[in-house]
């Protein structure tokens, strides 16, 4: 059971890391990031977890810079057991593989994203975003039935503007994730 929970916890961490990423192409490609553009980017991403599989994968792919790095530190709490700790560094390929494999578990979750700070570079091409992601109702398959999981991630993201495509992309994300798992 620990291996199953750890596998899904790492996807949850990736989800926390990327819940800020979702492209929204403007008619005219913007020349710089704005607070509104970033807020819209993060708002749309929370809704994308409910999208159909193909749309979800497209969103994941487009929301990440080709050189994205996801850093996560995960603490998993299982009833009656000491916490499991895991750290992960993920490339875009690893993140996309986890998204494909674990879409169903993420699709059942409710996602809320709260931005606590945005700092945009003077040239408008990069921003640092502090955000909190709250996932409730994630359903994980287990050896003895389904498990429910809830979690939260506190993240610092580096967002860059792709001026050719006209939307923000996640370049780097660093999240501390806490996940609580219980059977039902």
Query: What structural class is derived from the secondary structure elements?
Result: alpha+beta
At the first level of CATH, the class is Alpha Beta
Task: Give, in spatial order, the strands making up the sheet with the most strands.
Answer: 2-1-6-5-4-3
Mean pLDDT: 82
Question: What is the rounded distance between the termini?
Answer: 14 Å
Instruction: Report the β-strand fraction as a percent range.
Output: over 45%
Number of helices: 5
Describe the global form: globular
Summarize the structure.
The chain has five helices and six strands, in the order αααββααββββ.
Structural overview:
The chain has 184 residues and is α+β, with helices and mostly antiparallel strands. The protein has a single domain (2-183), classed as Nuclear Transport Factor 2, Chain: A (Roll), CATH 3.10.450. Helices cover 31% and strands 46% of the residues. It has 5 helices and 6 strands; from the N terminus they run αααββααββββ. The protein has helices spanning 2-18, 35-48, 53-63, 92-101, 103-107; strands at residues 64-77, 84-90, 110-120, 126-142, 145-162, 167-183. Strands 2-1-6-5-4-3 form a 6-stranded mixed sheet. The longest helix is centred in the N-terminal third of the chain and has 17 residues, at 2-18.
